[in-house]
Automatic annotation (TrEMBL):
Pathway(s): Metabolic intermediate biosynthesis; chorismate biosynthesis; chorismate from D-erythrose 4-phosphate and phosphoenolpyruvate: step 6/7
Entries under Gene3D superfamilies matching the protein: Enolpyruvate transferase domain
The name this protein goes by in its record: 3-phosphoshikimate 1-carboxyvinyltransferase
Ligand binding (phosphoenolpyruvate): 28, 101, 129, 177, 361, 405
Annotated segments matching region Disordered: 1-27
Source organism: Methylobacterium haplocladii
InterPro entries for the chain: Enolpyruvate_Tfrase_dom, Enolpyruvate_Tfrase_sf, EPSP_synthase, EPSP_synthase_CS, RNA3'P_cycl/enolpyr_Trfase_a/b
Source lineage: Bacteria, Pseudomonadati, Pseudomonadota, Alphaproteobacteria, Hyphomicrobiales
Family: Belongs to the EPSP synthase family.
Active site: 330
Assigned GO CC terms: cytoplasm
Amino acid sequence: MSHATEPQPVTASPGAPLRGALRPPGDKSISHRAMILGLLSIGETRIEGLLEGDDVLSTASAARQLGASMERLGDGRWVVRGVGIGGMSDPAETLDFGNAGTGSRLMMGVVGGQPVTATFDGDASLRKRPMRRILDPLLKMGTEIVGEAEGGRVPLTLRGPSEAIPITYETPVASAQIKSAVLFAGLNAPGVTTVIETAATRDHTERMLRLFGAEVVVTPHGPEGHGRAIALTGQPTLRGTGVVVPADPSSAAFPLVAALIVPGSEVTIEGVMMNPLRIGLITTLIEMGGDIERLNEREEGGETVADLRVRASRLKGVGVPAERAPAMIDEYPVLAVAAAFAEGTTRMNGLHELRVKESDRLAAVADGLGANGIDYAIEGDDLIVHGNGSAPRGGGTVATHLDHRIAMSFLVLGLASQHPVSVDDGAMIATSFPSFTLSMRALGATISG
């Protein structure tokens, strides 16, 4: 899906119970990092289960432009031959990341620590997203900003130093993207680069750096140990390796919530990553009374995975603490949908980060709820949804603002609301879950468009 594609309206309608099994696409976070670390390694990196959505393919294209060679062997199976740290070359063209906020920010860290010059750009949505939080630490590490759009947004051009400067950096907000960008830049620094975070964020970068041969030490930080200090020893020799990408819990969220709210449903979602820093939604849905059973736990690609058996459930409203946000930041839109079917009030606290995603997700979720007759309120950075334990009216058309998670969340709503729900554009769903419509139809969902 090109970001120049014409809008593709999609409608979801209530129907029969959902039954069957599916495996969601490979985890997007790990897929991005596998491509990037393949670029920075010596030798071959063999990847299985790669998410072949537009976002990851944009990162793959950028890695190729920076010097990697790669070959697609089949569905989700790739070989990347890297150039090693310090071996990248200037790309001949602009690195176009489309809608990929993660890919663009992580690759800014890569370029910012290496002796190359590259221009970053993307679609209309990406051009609105803030990059200053990534650029600030990179400037301390010796990166030069050659040109940028207003407010530190793309299109922007970065020139990296011959060697990055090792720094100790405390992230201003809980963000795995900031942490990862600094660590990737620190790979070319002659010393130890340390990132301090007051609240632990997803740790895929640390895990995968070790998998490729880097020395990374993680210690608790802060008075109660909720934060972490991540210390990377720079200028390692990274070696290509095998990466098995587990199923993405953020993509699993949509069939999971659909199975909980469509009466009579029973669905098994296979191979879902169970990283403790990624399962905030599952924890919350179980607190709400969701019947979610973990089966066949095992290890894949350095991560614990499990199959989830999900049955339709009567949900109740709960309070979701702000400190849980880093473990479920992408899942709040579909949690809001689940909350619309719950008995009582669900209050999701501390959602500031939703305002700087692919869209202002907090506003987009609120507008979508309102368009479908759901009682909600926003107080500061908190989203409050009032449910009465029955199906909401539905019948609305939701503006997605080029945001794949908004599109999928409200299509899930339409599968169980009183009347069908439409989204103005489903084209961008391909960025993270290209098979969403086909996979949901295979379970019995009625989705047209």
